[in-house]
Structure formats: structure tokens, C-alpha cells
């Protein structure tokens, strides 16, 4: 009898186990589509991430702002060569651009400068950077940092003391929501009028003013407390500020039912995620973890008594921020939070100067070393270096390339003192970091696109070859777009820059322009039959903005003396060295025309100069015939394959501008220097040209050329020319004894400090006449994505 009962009980257990296994298998199958759809979505949505290292953070109008751009792959954080152009802007508090530039990128790096005009107003500004491809996504993906600009040549309006009580309080339940009678961790943040965290303490009260929990901030106005709402009513928080003032705010309302998640460290190598489903049956939940658009963990558990527990090996998680999402049985995301794993992919940079103190106009030599870890030998890396004077207004930027890539770029809002979260580890740092993650964690990943398998329509293509100039053709009468219309874009000059395109169904034109630097005229022409069609050249800069406010612009009264010193230095530098500050590198570009080597090239000064273009062509250009059809003269190019002239007109260019037969034959040949002829059929994109005849004037400026009235001519800024950084040299006693004043605050800037195969480099420059403490800041990365920063100080004094 006992044996029978034992067998019976065992059979029941086996059947129960099999049933449970079948439920779990079915649950796993039900969720199996999420990882695959996630992978497909990420494959279609490759991310780029930019970081900009500026030489300083505080500037005067009339100074130069120098910067270096780093572009990395959003998944691997390695330098990426996808986009060849970065867009850099300085925006005012109304998000209106005051400075804009297009910067050439090569192997994920680029550099440039802004001369801050004396017309600019004093205030805090936002420097932001993005690529054309990044314009397809939320502006929160753009790089942003605040910079302060003061115009000492304009009267500074005294800043009134901020006596307002603009304190902000926010509560963030872990996982997203509070649920009735379910214990939750609630993070909070209190910020003051300047946008910085405020230390505080507080209590949570019921509707009857009964205290249910007390709390206190840990760091930067952030903290957390455990809380179990008894019902769905709103709970009130009374918060006491350092000055004794009390402010009131409300916690989010609790739901009658729903899910709550809690994350806890489980030993040194694991984290435990507990999911509680209030009033939910025993149904499965799915945990999905991804980082940098790469799946890390995917597991299914069934709720037992309303609770499911997941144990995650930390070794399965990527460095940096991981997104942990819980899905219910209907494959709906119901809880989400972030987790931060300290990254090990850090470039170790060390640098020392050849002395701790210097006199005026003395040589400074900085020895730089880069390595991937302390246990490894040196590694080559590309760095940017700024050396500038520290004072009451100029400080060291706390946000480095390392902290930005791994932490702040993944969080919403302003992160105060990001370097703190990479300081010496300990329990307090771990708790403060988790508070930060709960407060600033954001949902920039939209699961709707993944679950609904929505294929996004990308408006902006990656500029993987050159700058894309976008135009739109519309009918003036109906304002409708005109599809499949032929168009041509030219940039007049000795260098031939000619591009063609056809409008798409939205009437848009995309001209992929290469090696266009500086400001010049662009000419856009179409085959529109009359003037009822207009061509608009679209703004290449993004018109999407974040709602991140700039810090309040306030200058301390004691800063006036420092401002006066810096203003004198700026004016002296611009007076004595203006020419040296405006030297630019001429980039090495391919000057071969798009059609390659022509069949024949004529230098017209080598021949008899005729007074009409028809005579020139008839007398000594046998490859081009002038024929009359329908009462009009036409050019025809000889086709050596068919041993006859092409039946259609060739492409006729004058200084890179497309012209028709009539305009060309009326043009004065005495203004033409060269003529090139391509006799074969040439295919350029969707266009087929039956021969090419290219005329070039002496200066490449289309002198006196009269174009059709439908042509659009406007000034257009191409890629920024690279400005040379000026730093005087005092190698000899005679140079050091120069009576020209040297009041530089920025002693040195280089966007290209390259360490060798052993990770070593040396940089040299000279001090100025300004005494004080100087800081040298190095930032950069190597080819495999190890990023890092380092700074040290030295003194310049009388010797």
C-alpha cells in the first residue's frame, strides 16, 4: 500500500513537472519573436554617437572656439567611418543658431573652430553636434554641451539675484509604476533654481496626514526610499530644504493592478530581478536585456503566487548601460529600468610636463603615454590636447569622452559631476549611481517600432561620400511636388564640380557633393518648361531640438577683474596677431574632373584667338561640329565608335555650369582659357551624355555669363576650412626678448596628438606672459574603441 502511494505521488510529481515544463516551453515560444524582431530592427537602425572636445568652456566674444569631433559606432563604441560630415552648431536659449559649420570627418574624426563674433550677446549657449544620418532619430541622440560666452565689448546687464523658489521635485518608481499594496523602490530628485541638485530630507503623508515613510538625499539631491501604497489615492511629500523652507509635491498615483520590478545585487557576480504581478494569474513574464542595441539576456518565468524571479549573471551583461524590460503574456512591455556596469574599456592616458613651474616665454614639453590597461604595453591612440589658464571663470569640464560615451549619453537631462560616478568604488558610490540611473533613465528605445515591425522611412541618408545638398522642386501655382524632373547643380570654379539628379516622388533632389570647402555660389538648374516652377535649397541643419534647458547665466560680482584681464588679452591678441589667427589649411582634394581624362584638351592661347565661339569650334576643334537644326545652331560631338557625330547635343559646361547651345555660342571666347572634349558616351548616375564639351575661363568665375532666369543662384557654405592654431615660438633669446605682448590664455591646442606604436608622444609649446595656474587636458581614443581622458596642472610665475 505504501509502495502504491509512493508510485502514485511520484507519478503526480512527474506529471506536474511535465505540465510546468510544457507551460514554460509554450511561454518561451510565445516570446521567441521578440529577440528576432529586435535584431531586425537594430540592423535597420545603425546608430552613430558623437562626442565633441572643446578647448575650453568659457569664452569671450572675439576669441576662437576650437573643437575636435569623435564619431563612434553606437553598438561597439569604436570609431566609425559611416558619415563623412558632422554638423556643429552653437544655439542660444531660444534654440536659434548663432554659429554653424559642416566639418569633414575621416575615420570617425574631424576638427574645426568658430570665431565668436563681437556681435554676439553674453549668455549660456548650447553647442551640439550630429550627422545627417542622426537627423532620422530623436534629437536626444545629438551631442550637446553648454558653453558660456561673454561679450565684454557690450555693456553687461547686471544679473538680478534669483530669489524665486523654482525648486523642482520628481519621483521615479522603479520599473515605471506604483501598484496598490506592492512594495516598490522610489527614487527622487530635488533641483534648485540653477538646475543643480539640492540636499534635502522629507516625509511621505497619507490623505489624513499620517507619516508612512521618511527619506533623505544621498548625493546631488537624489536618493530613494521603499514604499508600499495602501490604495490608489495620491500621497503627499513634504520636503525640507537646507534653508529650512518646506516644499510640497505628490507621488505618482498607484494602480489597482499591474506589475512592479525590483533589482538587487546578489553577491558579487549576479543581479536578481524580482517581478510582482498584483492580482495577476499565474502567467508567464519575459525578461529582455539589451545594451547598445545588442541583446544580452532573454528569459521567461511564470508567476508563482504573483512573483517571478530572474537571476542574471553580470558576465552576460555588456559594459555601461543595460536596458531591462519585462513583457507580459500579451507581449506588452510593462516594466523597465536601467542597470549600470562599470566599463573596463578605458584608455589609460598619462602625461607629465618637463617641469612643475615655468617662467614667461619658456618651453614646455609634455610626454604623453597611452595604454589599454595597466597590464598591457602601450597602444597607439589619437588624442586632442588643450592647455589653458584656470581662473574664477574657467574650470575643467567634468564630462569627459569616457563618461559621456558610457554614461551621460545614455541618460536624459543634465548629469551633475559625471566624473564622480567613475571615482573610487564603494557602497556609497554604488547607491548614488543607482539613484542616478533611476532618476535619469529614459526610454529612448521605442518598443512599438519593434513589436509592430514598423519599418521606418528614413528621410536622411548617411553622407558616406560627401555633403548632400538637398533641394525641392514645386509648382508655384499648385504648390505640388514635381517628380522625375531633371536637375543639375554646379559650383563654379577652376575645379570642376558638376552634379546631376532627378526629383523623387516628393519632388526632392539629392546632390552628393564632394570636396566642397568654404563659401561659394551654387547654381541649380532644372528642365522645367517655364517659370511656374521653383527650386528651394533646403536647410541642411537639423530643425529638431531637445527640451533640455540651459543653466541660468549668472556672473559672480568678483569675476569683473578676471573679465577685464581676459578682455585685454583677447584684444591684444586680435590686434597684434590677427593675420596669424586667420591662416587656413588648403585641403588636398582630387581635381580630376568627373569624366576623367578627356579625349582632347585645347589651351586656346596656343591657337589663333577668334572673336566668336563658332569660329573657334569650326577652325581647330574637329571633334565638335556646329550644325543648324530648326533655325538654331547646335553642337555635335564626333563618335569614333560609329564614325559619325552623335545625334543628340552633348553636355556643355562653362566653369562647371551647364549651358545650352545658344548661351555658349554667344559667349566671348576671349574669356575662355581651356577647352576639353569627351567624345564617347558618358553615363553619370541616371543621366546619359552623348559627349561632353567643357570650357574653363581664366578665373573660373563665369565672367559675364548670362544664365536662364529659371536658374537658382545663391551663396552656400561648404565644409569648413581648417584653421591653423597659432602658438609663438621662443627658441632664441632674440625671440624671447620681443617687445610684442603675449597675453594668451590658451597656450596650446592640437586636435591630432598621435601616440606611436608603443603609445608614446611628445608635444612642445611655449608659455605666454600671463602668470597663473594652467591645465593640460587630453582626451581621445584608439582604433578599437578604448576612450579616455587625463589632465594635470602646472604654474607659470616670475623666475
Summarize this, please?
The protein is built from nine helices and 47 strands.
Description of the structure:
Residues 1-27 form the signal peptide. This is Macroglobulin domain-containing protein. It comes from Niastella caeni. Keywords: Signal. Among the domains are: 168-250, Immunoglobulin-like (Sandwich); 600-717, Beta Complex (Ferric Hydroxamate Uptake Protein, Chain A, domain 1), CATH 2.170.130. It has a five-stranded mixed beta sheet. It has a five-stranded mixed beta sheet with strand order 24-47-46-26-44. The protein has 799 residues and is mainly β. The model is unreliable at 1-26 (pLDDT under 50). 13% of the residues lie in helices and 40% in strands. It has nine helices and 47 strands. The termini are far apart.
Summary tags:
single chain; 799 residues; mainly beta; Immunoglobulin-like; Ferric Hydroxamate Uptake Protein, Chain A, domain 1; five-stranded mixed beta sheet; 9 helices; 40% strand; globular; disordered N terminus; signal; Macroglobulin domain-containing protein
Determine the CATH topology of the domain at 600-717: Ferric Hydroxamate Uptake Protein, Chain A, domain 1
Shape descriptor: globular
Biggest pleated sheet:
5 strands, mixed
Parts with pLDDT < 50 across at least 5 consecutive residues: 1-26
Class from secondary-structure proportions: mainly beta
- The second-level CATH architecture of the domain at 600-717 is Beta Complex
Question: Main sheet: which strands, in order across?
Answer: 2-8-7-4-5
By CATH reckoning, the class of the domain at 600-717 would read: Mainly Beta
- Average pLDDT confidence is 91
Instruction: Estimate percent helicity.
Output: 10-25%
- Helix segment tally: 9
End-to-end separation: 104 Å
Find the count of extended strands (DSSP E, 2+ residues).
Answer: 47
As a whole number of angstroms, the C-alpha radius of gyration is 33 Å
Signal peptide: 1-27
Organism: Niastella caeni
Keywords: Signal
Protein name: Macroglobulin domain-containing protein
Amino acid at each position: 500500500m505504501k509502495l502504491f502511494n509512493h508510485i502514485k505521488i511520484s507519478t503526480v510529481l512527474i506529471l506536474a513537472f511535465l505540465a510546468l515544463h510544457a507551460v514554460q516551453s509554450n511561454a518561451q515560444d510565445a516570446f521567441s519573436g521578440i529577440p528576432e524582431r529586435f535584431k531586425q530592427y537594430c540592423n535597420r537602425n545603425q546608430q552613430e554617437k558623437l562626442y565633441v572636445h572643446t578647448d575650453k568652456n568659457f569664452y569671450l566674444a572675439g576669441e576662437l572656439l576650437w573643437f575636435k569631433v569623435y564619431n563612434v559606432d553606437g553598438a561597439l563604441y569604436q570609431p566609425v567611418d559611416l558619415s563623412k560630415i558632422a554638423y556643429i552648431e552653437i544655439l542660444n536659449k531660444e534654440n536659434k543658431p548663432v554659429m554653424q559649420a559642416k566639418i569633414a570627418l575621416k575615420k570617425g574624426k574631424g576638427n574645426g573652430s568658430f570665431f565668436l563674433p563681437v556681435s554676439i550677446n553674453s549668455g549660456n549657449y548650447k553647442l551640439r553636434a550630429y550627422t545627417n544620418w542622426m537627423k532620422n532619430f530623436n534629437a536626444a541622440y545629438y551631442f550637446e554641451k553648454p558653453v558660456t560666452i561673454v561679450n565684454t565689448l557690450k555693456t553687461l546687464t547686471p544679473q538680478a539675484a534669483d530669489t524665486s523658489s523654482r525648486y523642482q521635485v520628481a519621483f521615479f518608481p522603479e520599473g515605471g509604476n506604483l501598484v496598490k499594496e506592492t512594495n516598490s523602490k522610489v527614487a527622487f530628485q530635488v533641483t534648485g533654481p540653477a538646475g543643480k541638485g539640492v540636499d534635502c530630507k522629507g516625509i511621505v503623508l497619507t490623505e489624513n496626514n499620517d507619516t508612512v515613510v521618511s527619506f533623505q538625499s544621498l548625493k546631488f539631491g537624489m536618493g530613494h526610499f521603499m514604499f508600499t501604497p495602501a490604495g490608489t489615492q495620491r500621497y503627499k511629500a513634504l520636503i525640507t530644504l537646507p534653508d529650512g523652507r518646506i516644499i510640497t509635491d505628490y507621488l505618482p498615483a498607484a494602480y489597482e493592478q499591474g506589475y512592479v520590478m525590483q533589482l538587487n545585487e546578489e553577491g558579487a557576480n549576479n543581479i536578481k530581478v524580482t517581478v510582482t504581478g498584483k492580482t495577476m494569474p499565474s502567467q508567464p513574464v519575459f525578461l529582455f536585456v539589451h545594451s547598445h542595441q545588442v541583446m544580452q539576456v532573454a528569459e521567461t518565468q511564470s508567476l508563482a503566487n504573483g512573483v517571478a524571479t530572474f537571476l542574471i549573471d553580470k558576465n552576460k551583461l555588456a559594459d555601461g548601460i543595460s536596458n531591462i524590460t519585462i513583457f507580459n503574456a500579451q507581449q506588452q512591455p510593462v516594466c523597465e529600468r536601467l542597470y549600470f556596469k562599470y566599463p573596463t574599456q578605458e584608455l589609460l592616458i598619462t602625461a607629465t610636463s618637463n617641469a612643475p613651474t615655468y617662467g614667461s616665454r619658456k618651453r614646455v614639453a609634455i610626454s604623453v603615454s597611452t595604454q589599454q590597461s595597466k597590464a598591457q604595453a602601450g597602444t597607439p591612440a589619437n588624442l586632442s590636447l588643450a592647455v589653458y589658464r584656470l581662473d574664477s571663470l574657467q574650470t575643467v569640464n567634468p564630462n569627459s569622452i569616457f563618461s559621456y560615451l558610457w554614461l551621460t549619453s545614455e541618460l536624459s537631462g543634465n548629469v551633475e559631476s559625471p566624473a564622480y560616478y567613475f571615482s573610487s568604488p564603494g557602497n556609497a558610490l554604488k547607491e548614488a549611481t543607482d539613484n542616478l540611473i533611476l532618476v535619469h533613465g529614459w526610454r529612448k528605445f521605442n518598443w512599438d517600432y519593434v513589436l509592430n515591425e514598423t519599418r521606418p522611412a528614413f528621410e536622411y541618408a548617411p553622407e558616406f561620400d560627401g555633403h548632400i545638398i538637398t533641394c525641392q522642386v514645386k509648382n508655384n501655382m499648385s504648390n505640388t511636388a514635381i517628380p522625375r524632373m531633371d536637375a543639375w547643380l554646379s559650383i563654379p570654379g577652376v575645379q570642376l564640380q558638376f552634379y546631376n539628379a532627378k526629383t523623387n516622388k516628393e519632388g526632392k533632389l539629392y546632390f552628393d557633393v564632394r570636396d566642397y570647402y568654404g563659401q561659394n555660389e551654387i547654381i541649380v538648374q532644372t528642365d522645367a518648361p517655364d517659370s511656374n516652377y521653383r527650386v528651394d535649397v533646403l536647410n541642411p541643419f537639423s530643425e529638431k531640438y531637445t527640451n533640455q534647458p540651459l543653466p541660468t547665466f549668472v556672473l559672480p560680482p568678483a569675476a569683473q577683474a578676471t573679465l577685464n584681464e581676459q578682455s585685454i588679452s583677447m584684444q591684444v591678441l586680435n590686434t597684434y596677431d590677427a593675420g596669424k589667427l586667420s591662416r587656413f589649411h588648403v585641403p588636398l582634394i582630387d581635381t580630376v574632373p568627373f569624366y576623367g581624362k578627356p579625349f582632347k584638351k585645347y589651351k586656346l592661347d596656343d591657337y589663333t584667338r577668334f572673336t566668336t565661339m563658332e569660329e573657334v569650334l569650326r577652325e581647330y576643334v574637329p571633334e565638335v561640329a556646329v550644325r543648324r537644326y530648326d533655325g538654331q545652331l547646335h553642337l555635335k560631338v564626333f563618335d569614333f565608335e560609329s564614325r559619325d557625330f552623335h545625334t543628340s547635343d552633348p553636355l556643355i559646361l562653362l566653369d562647371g555650369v551647364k549651358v545650352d547651345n545658344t548661351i555658349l555660342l554667344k559667349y566671348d571666347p576671349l574669356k575662355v582659357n581651356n577647352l576639353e572634349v569627351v567624345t564617347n558616351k558618358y553615363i553619370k548616375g541616371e543621366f546619359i551624355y552623348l559627349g561632353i564639351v567643357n570650357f574653363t575661363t581664366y578665373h573660373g568665375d563665369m565672367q559675364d555669363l548670362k544664365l536662364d532666369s529659371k536658374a537658382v543662384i545663391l551663396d552656400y557654405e561648404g565644409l569648413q576650412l581648417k584653421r591653423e592654431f597659432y602658438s609663438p615660438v621662443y627658441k632664441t633669446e632674440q625671440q624671447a626678448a620681443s617687445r610684442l605682448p603675449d597675453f594668451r590664455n590658451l597656450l596650446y591646442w592640437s586636435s591630432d596628438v598621435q601616440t606611436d606604436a608603443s603609445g608614446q608622444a611628445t608635444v612642445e609649446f611655449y608659455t605666454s606672459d600671463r602668470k597663473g595656474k594652467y591645465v593640460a587636458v587630453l582626451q581621445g581614443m584608439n582604433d578599437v574603441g578604448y576612450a579616455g581622458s587625463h589632465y594635470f596642472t602646472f604654474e607659470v610665475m616670475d623666475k
